[in-house]
Amino acid sequence: MAWRIVYLLNLLALTATGQPSQTRFNYASSPSEEWDFNAKPSINNTGHLIFDTVSALLQHWPNSRYRNGHNIVPGLVPVGTLLYHGRGDSNLPAEPQWTSTDPEHAYRFCRGGSDVGCWQLTLVTTRPLNVLYFDGASAVKIRDGPMDSQDIVAWGRIVPEWTGSERKRLQDLCMWGQQFSLDGFVRCRLSSEIMLCDFTEGVQVASFLNLVSHGRGPGGPPRRPPGRNPFPPSNVSSMGWDTVVQSSSWHNRYPGDTRIHLDLSRLISFYDTSLVPSLIPHRFNQERWDYRIAGISDKDIKAVLSSLESELRKPQGGSSGIDWMTLIHVIVDRYAERLDMVRYLLNSTEHDTPTTTKLVYAQVEIMLQPYILHSLSPSAGQDDYSWAAPIFRLCTTTHTSYIEVPLLSARLTYSERLIFQALSETNREICRVVTRMWVQGISAGLEKYSSPVSPFGSLLESWKHDINVLMDWLDWNVWVMCRPACAFEEHCYLPTWPFFGPRKDWERPQPRCIRKVEPL
Ligand SMILES: *[C@@H]1O[C@H](CO)[C@@H](O)[C@H](O)[C@H]1NC(C)=O
Ligand SMILES: *[C@@H]1O[C@H](CO)[C@@H](O)[C@H](O)[C@H]1NC(C)=O
Ligand SMILES: *[C@@H]1O[C@H](CO)[C@@H](O)[C@H](O)[C@H]1NC(C)=O
């Protein structure tokens, strides 16, 4: 697409020459195709996927929804963070082992007879731990996706036969990580896990308690009442996993588990089509549920590993200082609820159409209000949207044009540039669709400018189509929620391995309300 080429050329020009690019956003001198209202993102572009997955890092909800992670991000666990490890004996692990950030999760592994009790170790970090985070439901031990990125790092290929080989995987990851002084690996299923390479490095024992046990034998699986699904839909079990589901839900949404501080300036993404071009044909004509890393070429595996290793060798702090996570969420916050409202209004077909039209127009106008210049007025031709190009441009560039000033732009790392592109592409598409809807509303006579009034029915149909296509493309995890909202004694839950038995329930999980407590 033309606009994308302009973007890329601009980025390249900036990095290569450091020349100012202020003229680029001066609409008077911009090439007209740059603000073409019909220029959609190319089908194979991944900016929206990078945008959504970066916005979701360390949050359990979106990573339970799309289990197959595509990002690997270095991070730090700050001093004073408690980590928990439940076990069946009182020995400190002498090998790489599992810890959780919430005690509820570790307690599920605190195992011992009811006569002797069980053991729960609490560690506290004494220096910042260097960790590497795999996004997605990377601790879900099922084949076909969630473990792909770890396999690539541990073994240089995806090895389905070793899906359950946790000890080997962790040992090999730790061995590989030694050269970068990595202390552990962060993964997520219900809850965050930190796989620690050495229980004596950077951590000390805060307590090692012999707790009341819930009667499970050492090492064995949690005992279940015979014949009963531990998690009947719309219910919670008395087995204790409900407490994990609950503690996990505290980190469901942004900002997620804040005990891990990620360095986005060193993020590696398998959605990066320059780094990993071999996955483009594998995603083509597939649904997002099925996107995974399998099928990646050996050449791209080498490129990913060499990028990752070079990022891990870099000292921290060589980045622009831009808070990308906040910037992404500024965009999400500004549009998520309003787009959702527009879709809702347009979906209520039984409503009186002129009223719906005005309500939708009002929502669209609020989104664009900061960009609607006093000097603009519609051109004569009804189908010509070009008079509104400055609004499209301002909407698209306001949050990011400062990044392109040479001093700042030159400091962007490779990963920051990737996130910047993803953000620009995503924001641009929102602005294109919303501005076009607004212009169509003006043409239909919904504002003070007078123009021929089109029949509202066809306008509503075209708006409905556009908003649905946009929101399906964005596919923001914030829109996946229980509707109607759950009652006070319930919480909204996405079926996740290992609950709800049949695998089909986790394949395209739909949110549902489950009880937190038994009925009174
Ligand atoms: C939840 O499960 C328990 C045990 O099976 C049952 O007694 C209770 O009625 C269930 N509650 C709901 C709301 O289904
Ligand atoms: C998208 O990728 C597919 C598969 O590689 C390719 O056949 C197609 O031409 C690409 N389309 C565009 C518009 O780049
Ligand atoms: C649109 O309305 C139908 C019928 O009321 C409903 O089933 C559907 O979930 C709605 N879609 C959206 C996206 O809200």
How does this model look, in words?
- The chain is 37% helix and 12% strand.
- By secondary structure, the chain is α+β, with helices and mostly antiparallel strands.
- It has 2 domains: 35-50 and 320-479, no CATH class; 67-218 and 246-313, no CATH class.
- The strands form 3 sheets. Strands 1, 3, 5, 6, 7, 9 and 10 form a 7-stranded mixed β-sheet that branches. Strands 2-4-8 form a 3-stranded antiparallel β-sheet. It has a two-stranded antiparallel ribbon with strand order 11-12.
- The radius of gyration is 26 Å and the shape is globular.
- The structure holds 2-acetamido-2-deoxy-beta-D-glucopyranose (3 copies).
- One 2-acetamido-2-deoxy-beta-D-glucopyranose binds next to loops.
- Residues 216-236 are annotated as: Disordered.
- Residues 1-18 form the signal peptide.
- Residues 219-233 have a biased composition (Pro residues).
- InterPro entries: YOR389W-like.
